[in-house]
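Mods, move this if it's the wrong board.
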Amino acid sequence: MSENIKSFTDQNWETEVSNTEGLVLVDVWAPWCGPCRIVGPIIDELADEYSGQAVIGKLNADENSKSQELGVSGIPTILFIRDSQEVDRVVGAVPKQVLKEKIDYHLASELAVY
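Not the wrong board. Structure tokens:
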């Protein structure tokens, strides 16, 4: 796992996600989920590539009820959160390029806001 990846939990959600300014990408996953094992390494790569631009981390759906609060019904689900508000979501295993395009879009729109 990348050293740039965060581990989100019910306990640290407020400080690590809700109180973070800018873009936060949350990979909601579970250890038994086959497609999650495909997406996991991609998320690690993105955490390295976007270090300093976006906060990227993982939330284990089996261990944290926050995933239910967020309305996650299928995994993997990738949430894009900016300034504590969900701005986008992707459900299922998607190619790295799709996630890069979404991150780039949300980073660009973040700059346009300020």
